[in-house]
Specification:
Rossmann fold, alpha/beta, 404 residues, Rna Polymerase Sigma Factor, Chain: A, five-stranded mixed beta sheet, 17 helices
Length: 404
């Protein structure tokens, strides 16, 4: 009888999970996976920014311990819509930190931009597996993230399809790595002329040829800045010299990552261009899972193309390589923060598509000069990173007002 009870307790024990950014594309895909596996996972935390209707609907469906949203004036509306009095409501940045202190088995870090960094670091301290979809945090605070993960013995798992692919390949081999290749679709404007790029509208830039993504990451994909940010992320995640991290154009988005080894062999990870597999792999890790929702067909591998590129032809990649070559940690922060502001300005139709990277390059130069000969290590503390992020955002907005 005792053995039977122990067995039953083991069977019904669920994995607890917190989802930061539950109404975004990563959060939405994660929740779809959880709907298929209700007997395995128990949602503890759901957060959103301003999508209150969606958040309250999810709260009623998944019955978490707590939710968090941006604005206090939404509180009455939330309380009217939530049908469970036991759900705690948290608000703003302080609320995110309180939610991140809740210890769970799995954290999905899906908040877009550097706003996700404080709760990400808190999650690393409180939970043992953190699945990260936020490359901006890695770009600005990669060393800090990995140091904290090592300190608290927290497993970091990437949710980006490219980094997930590389992670999976490296997990299954002991071969010495020569190079890794991050695949890029090239975005909707691949091989566009300058005249064609001048005519690009917001509606054009947020339509990726293969992926369904949020607006910011779609624009980054169109400028290739997304791939540049992924180079920096890969450097921290895999502790690789940046010269071993290459970019290859792969228009079909079927091969998500390729690793070349010193013995002159290659391994590649293939899959559909959506986030289902990377997220499933991460939340079930280290166990395998049965991907019933997607049937792999070898026809998918027909007519795949891979193009090596001259990175000097792409301003985003030139900027990233320049930042990495100088090993200026503060410039990584400036790069990321100025790009966020420039992309927002484009989405708000304040600047043209071709102006985005011009703004980023000028901001890196301008803010770096403002810092002068400061000896602060901007990558060693959250306060320093957030200070430089705030300064960069302010100065980038000033540059945009002056120039455009």
């Amino acid at each position: 009888m005792i053995l039977s009870k122990l067995f039953w307790d083991k069977v019904v024990t669920k994995k607890t999970i917190s989802i930061f950014g539950s109404t975004g594309s990563v959060g939405t895909t994660t929740l779809n996976i959880l709907r298929e596996n209700k007997e395995i996972f128990d949602v503890k935390i759901l957060t959103a920014y301003k999508n209150i209707d969606n958040l309250t609907s999810l709260a009623n469906e998944f019955n978490p311990e707590a939710i968090c949203f941006a604005n206090e004036f939404d509180l009455d509306q939330v309380k009217r819509k939530i049908n469970c009095d036991k759900i705690e409501c948290y608000i703003g940045d302080d609320g995110l930190l309180e939610c991140a202190k809740v210890s769970v088995d799995i954290v999905i870090a899906g908040i877009v931009g550097l706003a996700g960094l404080p709760p990400l670091l808190e999650s690393i301290r409180s939970s043992k597996k953190v699945c990260i979809a936020n490359k901006e945090c890695f770009v600005s605070a990669g060393s800090l993230i990995m140091n904290e993960a090592n300190k608290y013995k927290t497993k970091i798992l990437p949710l980006d399809s490219e980094h997930s692919a590389i992670f999976q390949i490296l997990e299954n081999t002991n071969n010495a790595v020569k190079d890794i290749f991050l695949t890029a679709s090239g975005g909707p404007f691949y091989k566009y002329s300058n005249d064609e790029l001048l005519k690009v509208e917001v509606e054009d830039a947020i339509k990726n040829p293969n992926w369904v993504m949020g607006k910011k990451i779609s624009v980054d994909s169109a400028t290739l800045m997304n791939k540049g940010l992924e180079i920096i992320e890969a450097k921290h995640l895999f502790n690789l010299d940046e010269n071993k991290i290459k970019v290859v154009i792969h228009r079909q988005s079927i091969a998500h990552g390729i690793v070349a080894f010193e013995d002159n062999t290659f391994l590649a990870a293939f899959g559909y261009p959506d986030m289902t597999h990377p997220i499933k792999y991460a939340i079930f890790y280290p166990k395998n899972y049965n991907n019933k929702s997607q049937k792999m067909n070898l026809d998918l591998l027909n007519n795949l193309s891979f193009e090596t590129i001259d990175e000097e032809e792409y301003q985003a990649l030139r900027l990233v390589r320049s930042v990495l070559k100088g090993n200026d940690k503060e410039k990584s922060i400036i790069l990321n923060s100025s790009n966020e502001i420039a992309v927002k300005a484009f989405l708000d139709k304040k600047i043209r598509f071709v102006d985005i990277l011009v703004v980023v390059e000028e901001s890196i130069e301008y803010v770096s000069k403002l810092l002068g000969n400061e000896t602060i290590n901007y990558n060693d503390s959250l306060d320093n990173i957030l200070y430089l992020d705030s300064l960069t955002r302010q100065k980038t907005e000033e540059l945009i007002k002056l120039r455009f």
